Input
Amino acid sequence: MPTSANDIRRRGLQPREPGDTHAPSLTTNEWRTRAEAHRTRVQRWTLPYKERRSRQEAHPVHDFLFQYYMYSPSKLEAWHPGPLESLVDSPHAREEFKPPVYRADRGSITRDLTAIPHRRQVDLGSALKVLIATQDQPANFGCYGMHEWAMVYRSHDVRHAGIAPLRLPQDEVDAFVRRRPLACSHFDAYRFFAPEAQPLNRIEVDWSTRHETEQPGCIHANMDLYRWAYTGMPWIGSDLLWSCFELAADLRVLDMQASPYDLRDLGFQPIRIETPDGRREYQAVQRQLSEKAAALRIELIDEIRGLLRDRQP
Output
């Protein structure tokens, strides 16, 4: 079994320097096995999406991961080694891992961090600031996924009505929005609120200060770890990217289970946040996924810091 970047990190080894023969190097068979395993698990998501798109069909839960997040299925399917891994130099490796991202040196193929474009460096710096700021905030677990309810307040934008109708009458949805406190801290969720629902939000959220209100209990802030991960691709590697994608997928399911849409025909049982039991269920899952997000956020911060620190020749 090849040594992974996570294994190296846990064992306290240092990042590989060019020509460091003591750093682990993946043989052609090893990296091909890893790449095929990655493609297989990713295609369980990408192939159904491509098929739906070819039929002009929509999925109210899963499509979000490919439409809101602007990372193509083909890029997600492509495998890249971890940042602490190198590849044994070979014609096959050179064909797959090319300059300017990769370079061959002393029998190994490694990433060339000096090739990170300036625009990407700026984006990574911004991502790092968001990740650190979010990590430093106290977590809030009292929103209960009310943003999807606020979006359809007074029939404003019932986006999935053709696939998944509301599971409660519109007047009951509206009454629940008025009765429960809205506490959305994520600008990209808040901006889709119905205009009449926005003044009901107890947190002031604005585009210019959107990252100042991010907090680690928010399911959208935690979904966005996937965004910050692909911002660092291919330099951070596919293992971390996939972990962030998987988390985003789980959070998206929670998001829509707690929504006012009836998704049972698609195999998703509702979490009835309009009831005390439903709110407890939602919060329990939210906390579990936030713990996973906290670990991934630490890893992303570590990897992006390394990229920005080591990018100079």
